[in-house]
Amino acid sequence: MADSKTKTKLDLKPVFFGKKEKKLLLDPLNDNNPITVQVLGICSALAVTTLATKALTMAIAVTLVVGFSNLLTSLLRKLIPNEVRMIAQLIIIATLVTVVSLTLQAINYPMYKELSVFIGLIITNCIVMGRLEAFAMANDPWTSFLDGIGNGLGYGVILLIIASIRELLGKGALFGFKIFGPGSDFLINTQSFSLLHWYAPNNLMVLFPSAMFVLGVIIWLHRTWNSKLIDAS
Amino acid sequence: MELINIFIKSAFIENLALSYFLGMCSYLAVSKSVKTAYGLGLAVIFVLGITIPINWLIDHFLLSENGLFGMDLTFLRFILFIAVIASMVQLVEMVVEKVSPALYSALGIFLPLITVNCAILGGSLFMISKELNFSESLVFGLGGGFGWFLAIVAIAAIREKIRYSNVPAPLRGLGIAFIITGFMGMAFMALMGIDPAALMGK
Fold it and tell me: How many helices (H) and strands (E) does chain A have?
């Protein structure tokens, strides 16, 4: 790991992954998590977390959009006049989201149908806009890109946690594999693979309120564990 | 009749905030006091009521296959819709400032926030997926906005009261707001069984 002294002395040999870069990538996973700390991007985080595969797709899509829109905005930051920066940023994001949406349609159309409007809503996902405003407009392309990817990952981790809990308790499955509850063929085949076949999946877990409860409890646990995040008010 | 049906459905049964999770960011950020929540709610009704019909016109006359350009340009939807929303918000801001300075000072700070409120873009995208016609999309916009307004004013009122309760420290603020919203969502789920068409004796 090169220290800052060599960095200033040898400008020709920039540090691609030093301490600062690592911090940029890892900070959003805990201390500065976009969902549980900055409270950004909640809408999609809750809507797509009924199934773990949906959450995973969404997490990848958002990570790509945040990373590349940060990169593009940072490259263009000196050309964008301050008065129209919102619209310029939105156009960059909307273009990337169109690319992601068309790609997803080509790769996995049923998944695209399932995510419905929420792929389009990445445009107004506050994480993307927030990172562009707070970071990419003032930093160089490489660190902006890392910051974007880091925030995308921080978002993805929470998404996967919520989705696993909801799918496990609501459908008795994880990534589509049956774990809890009676198998679909349990009347014929009583030996069908299932760890806890007495558990009846609770449908409330895939509905609106439980998403709120699960995220509320996750925030509670996160703040209990990391007490410097506690709200003073 | 059909229009009243759509209004009730979009405001209560398919509430944008409490059954589709739309606009949650500003819903949580601006619900600390009833007064500001009220202002933002009004601004959302306003902007939804304007942008959804405009986006309908754009989708119908510019982007669709039998529109002005005669080809399927629907892949431009996201870019055009968000551009319309951003410019409409700017325009509304300017008009309100000229016409009614009192309303402007009440809404002022919230108007720019609305561009990135996903309830607005979500409303336009739902308008596409529900295949509404022009008047229906106008009513859908107003109804959806009204439902969102109700939700944010309700949570703001509850959060004002809960400040006097003894909530565990790590749960304070954000955590408890989520859990309350969950309960509100449960209450709204009770409205799901309502069929406006049946109520009107159809």
Answer: 10, 2
Contact B174 A39 (CB under 8 A): yes
How many structural domains does chain A have? 1
ipTM over 0.90: no
**Are A98 and B83 inside 8 Å of each other by CB?**
no
Query: Which of A121, A213, A231 lies closest to B121 in CB terms?
Result: A121
Q: Does residue A2 belong to any structural domain of this protein?
A: no
Buried b / exposed e along B114-127 (16+ C-beta atoms within 10 A): bbbbbbbbbbbbbb
In a domain, A180, yes or no: yes
Say if the Cβ atoms of B172 and A230 lie within 8 Å: yes
Query: In one letter, which amino acid is A51?
Result: L
Of B19, B23, B78, the CB nearest to A208: B19
For every one of its 233 residues, what pLDDT tens digit does chain A have, with 9 covering 90 and above? 444 444 444 444 455 667 777 777 777 777 777 777 777 777 777 888 888 888 899 999 999 999 999 999 888 888 888 777 778 888 888 899 999 999 998 988 888 888 877 888 888 877 888 888 888 888 888 888 888 888 888 888 888 988 888 888 887 778 777 776 655 555 555 555 555 666 677 778 888 888 888 888 888 888 888 777 776 55
